[in-house]
Amino acid sequence: MHWTITRKLFLALIVFSLVILVMSAVFGRLSFQRGFNDYLAAQEAPIVSRMVVELTDEFRPHQSWQQLGSQPRRWRELMRTVSAVNVRRRAPLGQRQQSGQRQPGGQRQRGGQRQPGGQPGAPGFRRAATDPLRLGNRMGLYDSTGQFVAGVMLEPDSGDWSSIDILHEGSVVGELRLLPVAAPGSALDIQFARNQRRSLLEIAAILLVLAGVASWIIARGFTKPVYSLAAGTRAIANGKYDQPIAVSSNDELGALATDVNSLARVLAANREARRHWLADINHELRTPLTILAAELQSIEDGFRPLDKASVASLQSEVARLTVLVADLYSLSSSDEGSLEYRFSDFDVIDLLQERLDAIAVRVEEQGLELQVELPDQPIQIMADHTRISQLITNLLENAIRYTDAPGVIRVVCSVSGERVTFAIDDSKPGVPGELHQRIFERLYRVDASRNRRSGGSGLGLSLCAAIVAAHDGHISARSSALEGLGIDVTLPLAEDWKA
């Protein structure tokens, strides 16, 4: 049999319920037995006290236990007398006599008139036919020296008995020994105990059935969302990301279902992005290859001469392919974490000035104006000099490539706290605000129909974002005050330069 989670949970709940029922029955039985014993002890307490009074009266006339010890019948009469107290108390009021009232002849009235010789005989006397508490089997009288007088002989090895001193004129004249209440032994007691056990078993059986039904409902209700989660994950594993899991609760399983749905959406978005990525790479590689093939074919067919101009055109397309392949390799290496970084302390102001001097001629040839605001003092950062140089170059090239002439490119650098920020702003055309984050996506262009005259592949800003992330920095896009695009890059300072 396949042990599903429902069956395991159902079995666990049933076992737990069974254990609880058994423990409840055992403890209930023990509690009932203890309470019943306490009840019997409370019932026998006044009888024992009455017996002490009777024995004291028996001792007083003769100042000894000799007469009681030689008359076992007298001990039995005393036992019947004290056991019949409760019966006498329930007799009609007209038949009751006050306890301890002396009748003519000096004999004490208890449960009816005592005849000479101690025999009960009045019509109102009700003899105790039985000894419900079995005191006759548990009680024994001993004198002050510990010698047995009457009743049951209780030696030290007879059990855990208790004793009550019998006093006369302030002196101990005897000892009444009493064994504790035994388990119910009469037919009525045994039947009562049997009925109690049967009732407990019936109640336990009913509760077990109810617990089984409740356990099955709980198990099914608990595992239903688990099955939904399993079905949803199987669908995701098969590439079906458009089958969300129904979220029917606000507990941990509901949160897990929500997370799985989020995972499906991310995987669907990644699959779509991968399709676009492959399509864009194919397009980016196909374009220069197609141009190369066409130019070579025209040269081979004699339509175009093999001169410096044709060779320069071929070299331009090869250079574009080289840059594209290099950017793709850098991005894939960054994704795999294998892009090498060699960190060292250097002055980022010097690096910025170096890169700005390198593009100054190109900026002027493009009909653009370069505005620079750099601090006079050096700013040290801990970074990879080559990668930060690549970062600055890509950002400046992007600004030159996508700024219309006449235009302006502004570079500003500042320090705030433990970080340095440099911003590169350009003039028109701008980028809509909703696309500011998308320009860092691979192969993304604001104008998808733009031709490749600018030489851009759509990978420069993606590579910039990867470099900044590797340096624990931050890069973002915004609308420039020059009505173009602004790029802000923040990098941590070197330890020695932190405030």
Provide structural commentary.
This protein folds into three domains: 1-90 and 108-138 and 185-240, no CATH class; 252-333, Helix Hairpins (Orthogonal Bundle), CATH 1.10.287.130; 341-497, 2-Layer Sandwich (Heat Shock Protein 90), CATH 3.30.565. It is 51% helix and 16% strand. It is built from ten helices and 13 strands. The strands form four sheets. The chain has a five-stranded mixed sheet. It starts with a helix and ends in a 7-residue tail after the last strand. Mean pLDDT is 76; it is low at 86-129 and 448-455.
- Helical content stands at 40-55%
Number of strands: 13
* Helix-strand topology string: HHHHEEEEEEHHHEHEEHEEHEE
- Lateral strand order in the biggest sheet: 8-10-11-13-12
Provide the β-strand percentage band. 15-25%
Total separate domains? 3
| Overall 3D form | elongated
Question: SS-based structural class?
Answer: alpha+beta
Largest β sheet strand count, sense and barrel closure: 5 strands, mixed
Radius of gyration: 53 Å
Average pLDDT score: 76
Return residue spans where pLDDT drops below 50 for at least 5 consecutive residues: 86-129, 448-455
Tell me the number of helical segments per DSSP (H or I, 4 or more residues long).
Answer: 10
Cα distance spanning the termini: 69 Å
